[in-house]
Each structure stands twice: as structure tokens, then as C-alpha cells.
Amino acid sequence: MADFKSMYYHLAGRTATAVDVLEATTSIMEANAKAMEANAKAMMTSAESMMDSVDALIELKEKLKLAQQTTEDMFLSDDNIDKTP
Length: 85
Prior knowledge:
Blueprint: H1 4-76
């Protein structure tokens, strides 16, 4: 007849080892996930800040284009052209 008691203790020991490994793995994965989440939040904040800068640069570019066009229009208008022969 098989020694059921020794088989039980053997399986219980294996199960306990498996549970320990799962707990350690879960803890490591949870810590990594939290770190990744923090990095993602920091990257999102950085990206939002960069987009604000890009928006400001686009606005500045448009203002400069308008100023350039206005200046060209002033110099090229009929009123400002020297009409001497």
C-alpha cells in the first residue's frame, strides 16, 4: 500500500514552493508595473509641456509671417512706389 502521508507532505511542500514563487513574482511584477505607470505619467506630463511649447512656437511663426506680409504689402503698395521717370 502506498504511503499516502508522505505523498501528501511531498505535494504540500511542492505547493508551498509554488505559492512562494508566485508571491515573489507577483511582487516583482507589481513593483515594475507601478514604476512603468509612474514613468508613463511623467512622460505624459513632459509631452503635454512640449505640446504647449509647440503651440507657442506655431503662434509665434504665424505672427512673424503676418508681420512679414504686412511689411511687404507696405513696401509694394502703389502709394509707396516712387513714380519718377
